[in-house]
């Protein structure tokens, strides 16, 4: 049972606010898709250890500065239908909107402007680059490349007595459930059976803006005149 109204709304990025998986998209660009995409699928379905899968994918990809900038462009071009309106309406209703993702922070940051989300509310894993732009590693201390990391970070971001909800497609998002933060599984881009089965609330419409009826209470919905798309 969801408990709106919420003060904070957390969104995953890949396959939620955007229609792509960042690592998979980079792998397709570099010709490594056949090797890497099954690792992503297994990690998102909870079939392998997430931290191990994260490290394995980045060791395969070794993305440089050009790759990150290219990925940022793909994110902007592949926003999920209704994402901009959804974020804008939530903010108009006074909600603090965050992106909490295991994606590369440098690419995610460039979503701040098109989505209107403050840079300080975008959370990802920092890529380490050499002075010439080549790959040097990633921030292995980030909770977002660890099992249960999203749950840990979201709890840290919550103020006293604040209520929050997380929207995401994968099992790393589902880990937030049961920590005092409500969870909505999102299957509008990719339906992940493990999440669809375990989530108390599961949303499969392609246009994500209709989530407003779940993220706002009746009074808030009435005040902004939300209508399904």
UniProtKB/TrEMBL annotation:
It holds the Pfam family HAD. The keyword Magnesium applies. Keywords: Amino-acid biosynthesis, Hydrolase, Magnesium, Metal-binding, Serine biosynthesis. It comes from the Bacteria. It catalyses: O-phospho-D-serine + H2O = D-serine + phosphate; O-phospho-L-serine + H2O = L-serine + phosphate. GO terms for molecular function: L-phosphoserine phosphatase activity; magnesium ion binding. Pathway: Amino-acid biosynthesis; L-serine biosynthesis; L-serine from 3-phospho-D-glycerate: step 3/3. Transmembrane segments: none annotated. This is phosphoserine phosphatase. It comes from Methylohalomonas lacus. The lineage of its organism: Bacteria, Pseudomonadati, Pseudomonadota, Gammaproteobacteria, Methylohalomonadales.
